[in-house]
Design goal:
Blueprint (H helix, E strand, L loop, with lengths): L1 H12 L4 E5 L1 E2 L10 E2 L1 H14 L1 E2 L2 H9 L7 E8 L2 H13 L4 E5 L11 H11 L6 E6 L2 E6 L8 H9 L10 H13 L4 H15 L14 H9 L3 E5 L12 H19 L5 E3 L7 H9 L4 E3 L18 E2 L5 H11 L13
Parallel strand pairs: 1-5, 1-12, 2-3, 4-5, 5-6, 6-9, 10-11
Antiparallel strand pairs: 7-8
The protein binds zinc ion (ZN).
Length: 348
Amino acid sequence: MIRRLLHTIRKSYEPKALVLMYHRVAELETDAWRLAVKPQNFEEQLQVLSRSWRVVPLAELVGDLTHHRLRRNSVAITFDDGYEDNYLAARPLLEKYNVPATFFICSGNIGSRTEFWWDELEHLILSTEVLPHTLDMWINQAQINFDLGTEQHLTEALKKKQQEWMAFVQEPPTLRSILYLKLWEQLKPLPGHLQQAYLQQIKVWAGVSGAPRAAYQSMNLEQLQDLARNSLFDIGAHTVSHPDLASLSPSAQQQELVGCKSFLEKAISREVTLLAYPYGSCNQETVRLAAEAGFQAAVITQDYPVHPTSARYKLGRFLVDDWSGKQLDACIKSWLTIKANAHAHYAA
Ligand SMILES: [Zn+2]
């Protein structure tokens, strides 16, 4: 009894740190996966972070963890995917407040104008003004047969419901969002070329032929290199094509990890030692391959704090929503009380 009590007390005094997960600093029409924080809120969040918390580079936090000297209230900031707004909107604010951050880059999209598949799908299904009444298509072995009923035409009421939807914690509130999620689940495990082929079919069905949207682009090579020149910032790997790694063969996983790492190292002339698994998806093989490829740590998308016994290749992260500085501060305080077994999955 006393031993257990002492153990509990000791545990509660263990230093804990947090890794925050951002994707975009932007204002979006719909954002089912809560990827974007508005610039004004991001600035407020940085004010709170720099004033009240010990913001450290993720590499430093990993070093502290490795050397058993994790410091209480350390917070590391990370960005996933490599959207251009990381360079245009997040970077200047991080520089203004002298706050370090790590950017996990999906190397296959650098310099390409292609949107990420989840953005394009969301736009097609949730924002197209008029869609055909029914969709009937096969994706791999699955038949999608869907009747949009009264939601063929996008109304203000539908828009509002969809804008408020948080796909990872709430049931889809409209038929359109149910269809979006069905298609998302079918497309997620597929290789990039098949995702693009099916998206093309959906585009034809939706009668949409627009060019990729500039606001959804990734950074180009010069922007990535410029970002990496500032010692405040670190570049990490997020694979070549953003696959669901756990569903790939070991050799395909290795190509994704090594291909991204070597592209980035060549581009920025710096060693890349940190990795974020897309969708947080990894298995035992992924962890082994990450270590073998020379990564020193990897982050997932499950929300638990870093504590002295955290596994270095499965560090938890907390998704930061479009909150005010005050809201983020309150969240950080409550996150630091979370036990290591609570978790949730996020999109990208
Ligand atoms: Zn991602």
